[in-house]
Design brief:
mainly alpha, 434 Repressor (Amino-terminal Domain)
Length: 87
């Protein structure tokens, strides 16, 4: 079963790709992978590595944090405690 974060990131990749009227094949070519891998990312079946997410963000002209906006871990499990990032 895909992790909720992987599913969210995949959905955002699909949404942005479609906003740009880009096919899975076109995105795959820009990133240097097969379109089947894009399909797996978009469904959350495969996790996107940090380096691949960076490449996808460049191809889709968005910053990396774009893929995490709107993600709410409590929506999946209200018992999850989310601690803010501190430097």
């Amino acid at each position: 079963m895909p992790h909720p974060v992987d599913t969210h990131v995949g959905n955002v990749i699909r949404q942005r790709r479609r906003e740009m009227s880009m096919t899975q094949q076109q995105l795959a070519e820009q990133v240097g992978i097969k379109f089947q891998q894009i399909q797996k990312y978009e469904t959350g079946v495969n996790r996107v590595s940090a380096s691949r997410l960076w490449e996808i963000s460049q191809a889709l002209s968005v910053p990396i944090d774009y893929f995490f906006k709107g993600y709410n871990p409590r929506a999946q499990d209200p018992a999850i405690e989310v601690t803010p990032f501190r430097r």
